[in-house]
Amino acid sequence: MTKFFMPMIPPTSTHQQVGHTIDKQGRHRFYQRGNGEAEAKLTAHLMKHIPEQPYTRAVQVVVKWCYPATGKHRSGEPYTNKPDVDNLCKALFDIMTRLHYWNDDKQIYSAVVEKYWSDVPGVFVEIEEAEEHETN
Questions:
Q1: Least C-beta-crowded within 10 Å: which of 55, 69, 75, 115?
Q2: What pTM was computed for the model?
Q3: Taking all residues of the chain, what is their mean pLDDT, rounded to a whole number?
């Protein structure tokens, strides 16, 4: 099992957000709006926790995104602002795959993702490999 907390201000935008524009000829152009700074910050924090060997079996991943509590929100309250949890995890899991936490993110058979307001901002990650009998 791998378990760690990355103290940081979690990203409020992800690389999965798609932009749209219309060129002079009236054609639609789609592009991905990147947040390279957020990805760089996540990568730097994740590099400190790379497992010695990549996970090879199915894994369950628990992620808790903890955003800084403000005057009108108390620590522990659900965070319902953007970004969506699926976009957050897509970015996170893509980075973790590039860093060889596992061989391929298709190994993730279960993902529990939560967003909260918190007095201590950051990202909590727990990875647990399935027992042998669970993968057969």
A1: 75
A2: 0.81
A3: 87
